[in-house]
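Quick one: structure tokens for this chain, please?
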Amino acid sequence: MSVRIDITGLRPERITVVPSPLAELGMALHALSEPGHHPGLQGWATGVTARLDSHLADRMCEADFLWRTTFSDLFMPFAGVPGRSTLPGATLADDLDLLDKLSDEQFVDAALEFTCALPYSTGGVSALDDAEVRRRALDLAAARGPQQLRFSERLLADPPRIRDWLRQFARDCDEAFFAEAWSRLRHQLAADARHKTDLLRHKGLAEALAAVSPAVTLDEGAARITVDKLGDGRSATADGGLLLVPTSLGWPHLMVLHRCGWQPVLHYPVGSLELASPPSVEQLTMRMTALSHPVRMRICRNLARSAYTTGELAQVHGMTAPEISRHLSVLKKAQLITTRRRGRYVLHQLDVTVVARLGSDFLEGILR
């Protein structure tokens, strides 16, 4: 499972690292709605929530499905502008102006992403153009609650009105809390953008992507970027560019905008809280599968306390040495145990550091 970006023919000058105030506002709204995703931001979120005007707090709930699960591509409108080469604005007002460059179909389809599940990577018929798609979108919105249904009905009836609503809502958030946050964050984001740009110029795309995240890799031979995520998706730069957009509020999310027809965007966290490189989805799956077997769990109980030989484990568990060896092989392949030789004996022991990280690794993996 991964998201792949075909970069065939992509010229180096079409790769840009640049912060986006509107994308950062989208991430701020997400962190305020789902503070559990961002334990390092809970103090900030609590402080902002305590100061919020009740009217603005109500409006946050009115369309929170646009940013609660993750956040809508509407917060990166630059990616959808025709020509696939538009950069984010220098200010929030500049970014909001780019919303007006999206067609009504683009705006509605992006706003309905978490409601009617239109085809994302491959495109499809817009709910504005097809009565059946519209009906299905409203049915699914109704299943999510009356608030989402009301918003979707208003969106489909009058897209420009909702576009104006979103612009005004963003301006009000800026006045209430975001301008203060952005004044602090933009310097860190600008510094990170300069660093990644230097890597691009002097060491190439592979080095820059490795600095973005260990989950992002470049296959130069296949002209493909692969982002290790619990999900599948495809995109291509085609005749457009590639944008790398840093966020100070994003960890542990590493998001890929791969909407059909839009410019691909890697939205990545800077100042990550990670203590070590996270395992790949494949490694994480292998570790959890290895620990799901009751015999291996009992073996781990022994190996967490002391180092054992295969023969000692066989005697403790009343099993044959070959049976124990097969279980140890699974644990070793998942990198959950270490082995060392003492004379003619091979001792096995649980890597408690790796096991202790499993919970946070799992959370990072599903939220990435």
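The longest helix spans residues 159-202.
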